[in-house]
Design a protein that fits this description.
The chain contains eight helices and 17 strands. The chain is α+β, with helices and mostly antiparallel strands and about 350 residues long. α1 crosses α2.
Length: about 350
């Protein structure tokens, strides 16, 4: 049992678009097995449940798929206000509500898919999936190699950049006009993915060429083949599956483009620096010096050098040696041990005290 959203079922059955189907549900016009359904998230099984709109059962038969070789002068639409013939007039198969997949200009001809499968229609026409469509184009003058490169690189038309996926010179088609001559002196094969309005005709106009014939010969994996102008045939199950597969492949390719690439370096820490590689020797912090040793002593290392103050005095560094190191109170006699500034001051004070005691006595 396959449950689907009811608005999707109605859309695929050709009753209405999904947005219109939602409005029908909110208005209380849709029922499933006799029960009115107004919740938009409701689901049903199209193969088992009976779904009605305004009390009329929805045709949930097998989807139908047709390939039509559209002739020139026929409008690609389901109905026309001006009363012109439409493509649906060329596929008279009864009460099945069909619709064309995409568009072909009234002056263009070739392959057109007719179906009642709304899901496939969306896959084949949505710009996101970019299904390839190939056209055989007859023009009044041959294109140069520079023109071919411009078509692929892109040409400007009406403030819009038009670009083909590929383009190459082609041989004339096997079918001929009434006078026995091809309808155009030069031919080119052009493949598109975007399908903008009158895109090929605008390209040729930008290159100074006139389009004599524009025939679509391929939609994704489906080819026009030898289907005669104005004729149609029903697609095989294999062809339908191939169309679905082509759209799915394009969707996966587009999803891969938007997926962020993995970082080239390894994982990073909080500070944004790369962590050490696996197997690398870890960095070790320097050993801490013994407690009680002053920072200046640790930096200079006086405790390990000759001449360091080993008596526990508060001298931060060992006195420098040589004549430039003489300080007030230090002896200048050869061989005299250098004295610190504090030691000289204490000795001078002791001498003055002794002199005062001698005068008192």
């Amino acid at each position: 049992m396959t449950l689907e959203r009811i608005q999707k079922i109605l859309s695929n059955a050709g009753v209405a678009s999904r947005r219109e189907a939602e409005e029908l549900m909110l208005a209380g016009r849709v029922a499933v097995n006799g029960q009115v359904v107004t919740t938009l998230g409701s689901r049903a099984d199209p193969e088992v449940d009976e779904i009605t709109v305004d009390g009329v059962p929805v045709n949930l038969g097998r989807y139908r798929y047709f390939a039509l070789n559209k002739p020139r002068g026929i409008v690609t639409t389901t109905s026309d206000e001006q009363g012109r013939d439409t493509v649906l007039d060329l596929v008279p198969i009864g009460d099945v509500q069909l619709h064309p997949v995409g568009r072909l200009d009234m002056d263009s001809e070739g392959l057109l898919i007719i179906t009642n499968d709304g899901h496939l229609t969306n896959l084949l026409t949505h710009p996101r999936y970019e299904i390839e469509k190939e056209y055989l184009v007859g023009i009044d003058r041959q294109l140069s190699e520079t023109d071919i490169r411009r078509i692929v690189r892109g040409v400007e038309s009406e403030g819009e950049r038009l670009r083909a996926t590929s383009a190459r010179i082609a041989m004339p088609p096997t079918s001929e006009s009434d006078d026995g001559e091809p309808e155009a002196p030069a031919w080119v094969l052009i493949t598109l993915r975007e399908g903008k309005n009158r895109e090929i005709r605008r390209m040729m106009e930008a290159l100074g060429r006139e389009v004599r014939l524009l025939r679509r010969i391929r939609i994704g994996p489906l080819h026009l083949g030898d289907l005669r102008t104005g004729s149609f045939r029903e697609l095989t199950e294999t062809e339908v599956q191939a169309l679905y597969a082509a759209a799915k492949q394009r969707a996966e390719q587009e999803a891969a483009k938007t997926t962020p690439a993995a970082p080239l370096s390894g994982p990073k820490g909080k500070a944004g620096k790369a962590q050490p590689k696996s197997g690398a020797a870890p960095r070790t912090a320097p050993a801490k010096p013994p407690q009680g040793q002053r920072a200046s002593e640790r930096r200079i290392g006086t405790a390990d050098k000759p001449g360091a103050n080993a008596s526990g005095s508060r001298s931060r560094v060992s006195p420098p040696q040589g004549p430039t190191a003489l300080r007030r109170g230090a002896s200048s006699k050869p061989g005299a041990a250098p004295q610190s500034k504090g030691t000289g001051r204490r000795a001078a004070g002791a001498g003055r005290s002794a002199a005062r005691r001698k005068r008192r006595t």
